[in-house]
């Protein structure tokens, strides 16, 4: 890799979104791009991947198809090249296995020559005279740093699991859902396991552990702060909210309104896939036929503190219906509280170039840029600006098409303007002043 090159785009982080950007830009002539990730190789959430788990979106939402269905990095081409197309067809499901998605992304990443793994981006500065960014990167197992230069940055550093402050420093007994697969084998020897969090990850772990409750014989608790274990609304008219139309509409609302609307949309992106809710119920029914099961499910229960005791962990919850605190004992606590975006430390030297809103959040503009001259772009940031589809894999191509068109100053990937049957606002001529 020539370090004197000034790249048109440097991508930081190689999750699905920047991998999609790398695939979509690979065939664009004269565009110099390079991507860095500190991981060993591409790996997508393999720490929470029970073998039966599937993507929650159809395969068409792969790395490229929504922007360019003819692209060689499509999932269908992956199936063809790996001799799996007929089996996928006969299986008759739109939903690929999560492990299959990971394999597919690895396959794509292995064909690109501009992805550099085991490389941490440590610091980004801006050279105002030369008008480019200077990235300081460090290779794993090396003390030396190197510098790379870029006209545009695309930050795809992802999100990290939420761990409350009072749980920190107890990692041998308090585990994140993101590490479930690493601990799963040990769980069979435990007397009690408590899962906190009523979203998809909590539900997947509960279902997985419930499946072997009779052979393992642990007490299995599943608690959520929500008023009920709610399912995700996947009705087709609701799915129209995962469209460019709704993203544009949401973006056009005043910020305060957007903050209010996103709070009311939990069931659109935080709940449990309904098929899984039903499988959990059926499993409970089946397994409790011979004798009552040692499991508890409790909504309205907020975890307030965790203390280590001789017998494991003392977990204190608050029940918001009865207004009571209560305590349960558990060997292991699994936190499935969702993920949050953390502003990367490497941005500190260019903090002043970034636009921030009154709440200290990055101000993400319509083209997903966060600075006035529109050459720093972000992936998976801005639930408050672009709405709940920001982390959705099916909106990745849409966002990348906008970013690429913006950087190149022309329409390389046409973007659908109108796909929804419903309208999200009245026509200007219908408005009564
Ligand atoms: C378990 C799980 C299942 C999901 N399933 C679905 C689904 O079915 N459908 C859907 O639409 N969405 C799903 N999502 C949501 C979303 O798709 C994922 O969060 C997705 O991984 C987001 O991709 P990303 O590219 O933003 O970041 P990530 O996948 O988090 O990747 C970010 C990368 O940046 C790297 N990085 C960070 N900082 C640096 C640095 N300083 N230097 C170098 N590298 C760095 C990290 O090593 C990491 O590899 C799921 C999320 C989770 C957690």
TrEMBL record:
Keywords: FAD, Flavoprotein, Monooxygenase, NADP, Oxidoreductase. InterPro entries: FAD/NAD-bd_sf (IPR036188), Lys/Orn_oxygenase (IPR025700). GO terms for molecular function: monooxygenase activity. Pathway: Siderophore biosynthesis. The keyword NADP applies. Its cofactor is FAD. Pfam families: Lys_Orn_oxgnase. It comes from the Bacteria. PROSITE patterns: PROKAR_LIPOPROTEIN. The keyword Cell inner membrane does not apply. PANTHER family: L-ORNITHINE N(5)-MONOOXYGENASE, MONOOXYGENASE. Belongs to the lysine N(6)-hydroxylase/L-ornithine N(5)-oxygenase family. This is SidA/IucD/PvdA family monooxygenase. It comes from Acinetobacter pollinis.
């Amino acid at each position: 890799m020539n370090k004197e090159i000034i790249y048109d785009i440097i991508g930081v982080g190689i999750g699905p979104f920047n991998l999609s950007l790398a695939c979509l830009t690979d065939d664009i002539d004269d565009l110099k791009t390079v991507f860095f990730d500190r991981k060993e190789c591409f790996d997508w959430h393999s720490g929470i991947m029970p073998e039966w788990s599937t993507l929650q979106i159809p395969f068409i939402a792969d790395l490229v198809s929504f922007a360019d269905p003819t692209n060689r990095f499509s999932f269908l081409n992956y199936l063809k090249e790996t001799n799996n197309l007929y089996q996928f067809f006969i299986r008759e499901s739109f939903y690929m296995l999560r492990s299959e998605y990971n394999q597919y992304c690895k396959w794509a990443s292995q064909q690109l020559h501009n992805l550099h793994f085991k490389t941490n981006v440590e610091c980004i500065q801006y050279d105002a005279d030369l008008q480019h960014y200077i990235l300081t990167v460090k290779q794993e197992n090396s003390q030396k740093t190197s510098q790379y230069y870029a006209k545009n940055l695309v930050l795809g550093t992802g999100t990290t699991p939420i761990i409350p402050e009072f749980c920190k420093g107890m990692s041998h007994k308090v585990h994140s859902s993101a590490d479930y697969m690493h601990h799963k084998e040990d769980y069979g020897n435990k007397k009690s396991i408590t899962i906190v969090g009523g979203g998809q990850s909590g539900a997947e772990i509960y279902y997985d552990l419930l499946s072997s409750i009779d052979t393992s014989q642990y007490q299995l608790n599943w608690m959520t702060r929500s008023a009920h274990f709610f399912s995700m609304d996947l009705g087709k008219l609701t799915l129209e909210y995962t469209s460019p139309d709704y993203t544009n509409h949401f973006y056009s609302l005043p910020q305060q309104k957007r903050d209010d609307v996103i709070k009311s949309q939990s069931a659109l992106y935080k709940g449990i896939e309904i098929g899984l809710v039903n499988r959990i119920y059926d499993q409970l029914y089946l397994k409790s036929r011979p004798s009552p099961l040692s499991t508890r499910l409790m909504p309205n229960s907020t975890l307030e503190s965790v203390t280590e005791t001789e017998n494991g962990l003392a977990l204190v919850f608050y029940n918001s219906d009865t207004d009571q605190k209560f305590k349960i004992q558990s060997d292991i606590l699994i936190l499935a509280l969702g993920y949050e975006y953390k502003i990367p430390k490497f941005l500190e030297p260019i903090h002043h170039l970034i636009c921030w809103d009154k709440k200290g959040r990055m101000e993400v503009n319509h083209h997903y840029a966060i600075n006035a001259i529109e050459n720093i772009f972000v992936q998976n940031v801005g639930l408050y600006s672009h709405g709940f589809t920001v982390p959705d894999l099916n909106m990745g191509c849409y966002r990348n098409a906008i970013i690429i068109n913006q950087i190149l100053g022309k329409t390389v990937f046409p973007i659908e303007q109108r796909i929804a049957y419903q309208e999200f606002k009245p026509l200007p001529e219908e408005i009564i002043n």
